[in-house]
Amino acid sequence: MEKEITFLVIVDESPEMYKALRYAAQRSSRNNGRVALLYTFDTLEFSHWKAVEDIAEAESREKAESKIKDVQTFLLEFNSKKPKKFIMKGDRIECITNFLKENKFISNLVLASSSEKSSSDPLINAFTGKFRSSLSVPLTIIPQNLSEEEIDKLSSIN
Do the domain assignments include residue 67? Predict the structure, then answer.
């Protein structure tokens, strides 16, 4: 049996994430594949107040689940397969690289560049720079200046 193509999108609060989602959802739909969603949040250290740390972590996890639910609704407009959903705690780059090492079903990592001049696109910089050798799958970068129509056209190419 052929491996299902799975596109990984990193879920966050950035507006460009929706460009990556749109591309991944349509590409996966055309290839009978699926999208995997990964939301990461930082570890909060309140070593002498464990109860506060637990509450903060629970709030972060609740926020992650809510965001993933919203993103899933968006994805289902383009692909009828429900996405695989993951939440990890820790350094974002470390979480992504560990996730890719542990989950061999991922076929492609999809990121979108920011339209903000002040933004440095930390994930793109990391995975095209210092951490490029840690990637075990192709990286697709959606340019910030692509319109929805252009993304749709690109995602329909086999």
Answer: yes
Which pLDDT value is given to residue 118? Answer: 55
Max distance between CA atoms of the chain, in angstroms, equals 55
pLDDT for 28:
92
10 is a domain residue = yes
The whole-number pLDDT of residue 18 equals 94
How many domains is the chain built from? 1
> In which residue are the tokens 């594949």 written?
33
Domain that includes residue 47, residue range = 6-155
Instruction: Give Cα separations from 59 to 55, 64, 96 (angstroms).
Output: 6, 9, 21
Whether 1 is in a domain gets the answer: no
User: What residues does 108 pair with on adjacent strands?
Assistant: 7
Q: What is the pLDDT of residues 67-103, one digit of tens each?
A: 999 999 999 998 889 999 999 999 999 999 999 999 9
Which CATH number is 26's domain given? 3.40.50.620
Q: Cβ distance 41 to 89 under 8 Å?
A: yes
